[in-house]
Amino acid sequence: MKRILALILALSLLCMPALGNETGGMLEKAEAFVAAGDLESAYICLDIAQKLSPNDPAVLRGFARLYSTEANYESALKFIEEALALAPADGSLYLEKARLLYITDNLSNVEQVLRYAEICSAQPDEELLLEAAQAYFRAGQYEKVIELCENQSSETLRLQAARACDRTGQYERAIELFETLPDTVWRNGYASAYTRALLRSGNPERAQALGLTSIQEKDEALAAAIADGKSLRLVPTQETLIDSLSTLPVFSSNTFAEENREAAEAEGFRFTPSGDGLRTRISDTLSALDSDSSARLLSVSPSGNAFLIDLGGIAAIVRNEEITVLTINRSRGAQNEYADLTYRRIENRSPFPSEPDSFCWSPDERYITMTFIQKTLINAQFMDLLLADTRTGDIFLAEATPKRLISLGALTATTACFDETGKYVYYLVYGSVADGARCGLKRYCLETGEAELLRAVSGAFFYYPQLSVDKNGVVRAITDDNKQDRHLGVITFTNVDGRWKSEVRSFPNPLASQSPRRYYRSENSGYELFLSKGYIQSSEIGAYDMNYLTFYNETLGTGSDANAIRLPVDGSGQAESMEISEYLSAIAQRTLEQPNVQQAALSPDGYSALILAAYHGTVVCCILDLDTLVCRRVEFPEDAQPDLISTVQSFTTLSWLEDGTILIPSGNTGNLFKLSIE
Hints:
By secondary structure, the chain is α+β, with helices and mostly antiparallel strands. It is 31% helix and 31% strand.
C-alpha cells in the first residue's frame, strides 16, 4: 500500500503548476524514495526533474545514484560523465566517479580522477575511502590500503589498515591498530585476524584475555583415536531405507489432494484429512500405490532423522515412519506470469526432482532449498530458487525472474543456505544480475516471501560454490574467476552499516586449469578444507585430471593453499603436504599413486576430516587429523563396496553429526551407512 501511495504521489506531481525551485524539490523527493527502496518512484521524480532542467548536472548525478543503487554501474558512470561534461570544475562529481570506479574494480584511472577532484578542492570522505580500501583489498594491494587508512580518525578505516597489516605479515603493526579500536568494531567478523596477529606475534596471553582462544577447543578423544590405530574402532551399520518404505503411510498436501481427488478416487484411492489440517492422508500405503522400484536417496537432514527420497520421479520426505509426497503448489511463493511458465517447465522435465545438484535444510528441518548449478552452467538451463516445505508437502518458487533470450542470459540460483534462525535463505545467482556483473548474492525471507539482491559482483562462480553463513551473518562461498594466475578464492559478503560489501581472497594458481569443487569451513578450529579438480595437459604426459584436497588455517598458520594433501594409498598412515603442480605432475607421470578424492566432511570440532576416495575400482574411506596429518582407514564389509562405489559416483553429501555418528548415503540404492566411533 505504501508503494502504491508513493507512486500516486509521484504521478500527481506531473499535474502541479510550476513552483519555485521545482527541480530541487524533485531531486529531494527522488533521494527520499531511493533511501526508502522505492526506485520506481525515484525514477519518476528524476524524469520530471530532467524535463524541468534538461542540462542540470545535479539531475544527472541523481540518475547515477539511482542506477548505482540497482548495481547498474555502467549506466551510472555514463550519467556522471555527462554531468562532468556540463560541470567540469565540480570536484564532487569527480569523487562520485572515483567511487564508481572503486566499486567496479577499475583502478587504472582512479588516481587521475582523484587528482582532478583535488585540483577542484574536493577531498574524499570516509565512505569513498572505505570503497577504495575494499577495492584495493580485492586487488591484493594491501600496502595501498595501509597508506590510505592507517592514520585516519575513522575507526572503520583503521580496521581496514589493521586487516591489511595482518595480510602482509606485519602483525605487531596490526596489533597496534587493533588496540586503538573498540571491541565492537572488530569482534563482528574480524576477530580471526586479530587472533592470528596475536598468536603469530607471540601474544597468546593477550588472545586468551580477550576470549579469542576458544578456537583451540578440540575433541581430544577423537584425536587420540586417530593417533592410535588400535583404539580407533569404526562400526559400520548398513540400513536399507527403500526396503522399509512400502509399509509406511503416505501423506500429501491439501492442494495436491484437492487437485487429484477425482482422478485418484476413480482408481480406488481415498484421501482423508490428517490431524494437523495441513496435510491429507492417502489411505493406501506406498505398496498399494505401486511405486517405482528405482527409489533413490537424495539427501539426509543434518540430524539424520529425515530423508529426501526420489520415488521414481516423485519427491518425498520420509520422517517419523511416514512419507510426505512433495508436489508443486502454485498458490505459494512467487506470483507472476514467469512463475507459471517456470512451473510448467519443471513439470515437463522428467528428471525432476532428482535433477537438483544440491539441497540445503533449514535449522528446524522444515524447509529444503533446491538449486541447479550444473544444469545452468553446462546446458544453459536457467532455474530460480526452489523451496520445499517438508511439513505441508509444498514445492514453490522463492521468486520468478523474467526468462530472457539465452544469448542475454537469465538469473538462476546456483547454491543456497539458511541463516542460524531459519528466517532467511541466502543464495548465489548467476546470469543477468546487473550490467558488468554476472553473479550476485540474494536473500529470501520466509516470513514475508520477499527476495532482495544484496550484492552484485563481477567474475564467475563455477561448479560447486557451496555457500555458508556464520553466526555473525558473514556469508562465504568459493569462487573462481577463471584467471590463469589464480586458482580459487573465498568470497566473503559482509553487511557494513546496512550496506553489503564483498571481498575475494584469491589463492595462487599453480597450473592453468584448476576448478573448485567443495569448500568446508569450521568456525571452531579455523580450518578451511578445499576439494578441487586439477587438470594437466602436455605433449609429454598427455591429459590428466585429478581431484585433490588442500587445507588452510589462517589463525593457526597450519596448512597451505598452494599444497595438496598426499594421502597414504591404502588410507592409513602419515599423510604429507606437497606442492600442487608437483603433486599433479607426479600423478600424471605415474611416479606417484593416489586415491582420487571425491567427497569430504569436517568433524564437529573441525580438526579432523572424513575423506571418501576411489582407488583401483574400490572405495577408500579414511579420517585425517588436520593438525598432525595422521590418517586412519575406515574398514567396510566386502558387500558394502558396490554401494560405496555408487555413492562416490553420485557425489552425495556426507554428514558428521554432533554425537559423532557419520552418515554416508548411497544415492543410487537408497542404502545409508552409519559409522560410530567407539
